[in-house]
Amino acid sequence: MKIMGLDVGSKTVGVAISDALGWTAQGVEIVAIDEDEKEFGLERIGELIAENDVQLVVIGLPKNMNNTSGPRVKASKRYGKMVRAKFHVPVEFEDERLTTVEAERMLIEKADVSRAKRKRVIDKVAAELILQGYLDRNHV
Hints:
Elements: E1 2-8, E2 12-18, E3 25-32, H1 42-52, E4 54-61, H2 71-87, E5 91-95, H3 99-109, H4 115-138
Parallel strand pairs: 1-4, 4-5
Antiparallel strand pairs: 1-2, 2-3
């Protein structure tokens, strides 16, 4: 069963997809969106769901460090509702505290990626970390 992981921001959505066995997450792409203009990139998300026969979508919840929910958590939950309604796939949520920080650290320390390039790939790597964390905890 393939699972899609999403890191939802206000301007981009990082996308990762698991292997068929649900062991590893691979970053796929970054979908441009614009929350202010009500452009959510759902057409591309739907294409990726169909192309990869995705059976479950996991969306990161950017909770505050004290475990409270702010406006980005609400936005991620709204995005999840749209995905569930439009594509009729189950949606689960995964705590994503510090995934973007971890993604940036990995890109700097392990891949020595320049600041400009990090900005272009960070959301995809964060989606990969969100999905891998879900896979590791749930042993899908």
